[in-house]
Specification:
Elements lengths: L1 H18 L3 H22 L4 H26 L11
Helix pairs in contact: 1-2, 1-3, 2-3
Length: 85
């Protein structure tokens, strides 16, 4: 059951992030899903505080990479790297 919940949280976040074009909306989605994930890990498992922190940091990192890559592929945001001329 816990595995299905974790997978649902990850997939749900990605589905919602895919449809949002504004940076503020994406930030809100990442924040809410990270809080839900952290609460789920903390309440539904016997994980120690440092394990909850580590898994939450990993989850948030995955979402941030997803957001960064989808902004780059949509052309909504460009990276700070100089463009070749």
């Amino acid at each position: 059951m816990n595995v299905l919940l974790a997978a649902g949280i990850m997939i749900g976040a990605m589905i919602l992030l895919r449809g949002k074009q504004t940076e503020g909306a994406r930030l809100a989605i990442v924040s809410v899903f990270t809080l839900v994930f952290s609460a789920g890990v903390g309440l539904l498992t016997n994980a120690k505080r440092n394990e909850v922190y580590a898994t939450t940091a990993g989850y948030a990192a995955v979402l941030v990479v997803y957001v960064t890559n989808s902004f780059s592929s949509n052309g909504s945001k460009s990276s700070s790297a100089p463009k070749p001329s």
